[in-house]
Amino acid sequence: MQRKKEPIISLHGLHVVRVRNKIAAIELENAQMQQRLRCKMCLCKELSIVFLPCGHLLACEQCGVNTITCLACKVAVTRHVKFTI
Is the pTM of this model over 0.85? Predict the structure, then answer.
């Protein structure tokens, strides 16, 4: 009687799968973090303007300098401060 051959998964193979899964998770986290750092108005450039007095960081320089009301809290913006991450 012939025995069925069952697939043998090596420890190395399991390690490779775990490493690939970890890499995929880190890449996803990186993409999400980069998205959080994007201007909430144009969605293209990096955040760089803090609105005062509220302190929200929501816009790039090009979009932010012309903003008169904060997008998050609707407070009148009295000053724009350049911020570098």
Answer: no
Residue 27 Cα distances to 15, 21, 42, angstroms = 18, 10, 23
* Rounded Cα–Cα distance for residues 83 and 10 (Å): 51
Start-end of H helices in the chain? 11-36, 61-64
pLDDT at 62: 96
Q: Give all domains of the chain, ordered by start, each with its CATH number.
A: 11-82 (3.30.40.10)
Cis peptide before 53 (omega within 30 of 0): yes
Query: Two tokens at 3?
Result: 């025995």
For the stretch 49-69, pLDDT in tens is 999 999 999 999 999 999 999
